[in-house]
Amino acid sequence: MARTGPLRLALFGAAALLLTGACMSDDAKNDPLPRLSRARATQWAEEHTARMAEAAGVELDRASAEAAFEDCVGRKDEVAHDGRYSLFYTVYAPVPRERHTDVARRLRADFEKEGFRITGYREYQDDRLTALVDAKDDETRFSLATGSVSPTRYLFSVRTPCMIPPGVTQQPQ
């Protein structure tokens, strides 16, 4: 039975609000995409990275936040010109090197509790900046990633599935 913690419930809630009724599958590339404005997608990512930082016991440096919107590219490099996008949102937290492994362990436990599939995990070792956790929700296709980027900073990120702005007609791809 799938767990339904706060983060997973929020992801499913967002997906339920966004989806127009059809299931997104690899075999159905023209299924309706989730609909969300870029501003709302950014706000949503901010909320979820804040939740991740809370679970890790750290404070985010909001001034470091970046929202990178990317075109959705199909398996054969096709791109529809209907405004669809994916969001890669990043923000850093000041975390001393001595806490990087603790942060990774806390986040891994939290992601697992929330029902995410851990796709990558490493702890800080031998003066290498390698503490990281990658997780994915296969149903909603949201990905979460965190990791050391310097002896004093830790990265939090969210990647969304392909989405389309409200009011736009989705083109077949």
Point out poorly predicted stretches: 6-27
Helical content class = 25-40%
Largest sheet: 6 strands, antiparallel
Strand content: 25-35%
Number of strands: 6
Structural class by sheet pairing and helices: alpha+beta
Order of helices and strands: HHEEHEEEE
Major beta sheet, strand line-up: 1-2-6-5-4-3
Mean pLDDT: 83
Radius of gyration in whole Å, from Cα?
Answer: 17 Å
Explain the overall architecture.
The chain has 173 residues and is an alpha+beta fold. The protein has a domain at 35-72 and 80-159. It is 27% helix and 27% strand. It is built from three helices and six strands, in the order ααββαββββ. The protein has a six-stranded antiparallel sheet with strand order 1-2-6-5-4-3. The longest helix has 19 residues, at 38-56. The termini are far apart.
Short overview:
The chain has helices at 6-18, 38-56, 100-113; strands at residues 61-71, 85-94, 117-122, 132-136, 143-150, 153-159. With 173 residues, the chain is of the alpha+beta class. It has a domain at 35-72 and 80-159.
Give short descriptive properties of this protein.
alpha+beta, about 170 residues, about 25% strand, 3 helices, six-stranded antiparallel sheet
Write the SSE topology:
Blueprint: H1 6-18, H2 38-56, E1 61-71, E2 85-94, H3 100-113, E3 117-122, E4 132-136, E5 143-150, E6 153-159
Antiparallel strand pairs: 1-2, 2-6, 3-4, 4-5, 5-6
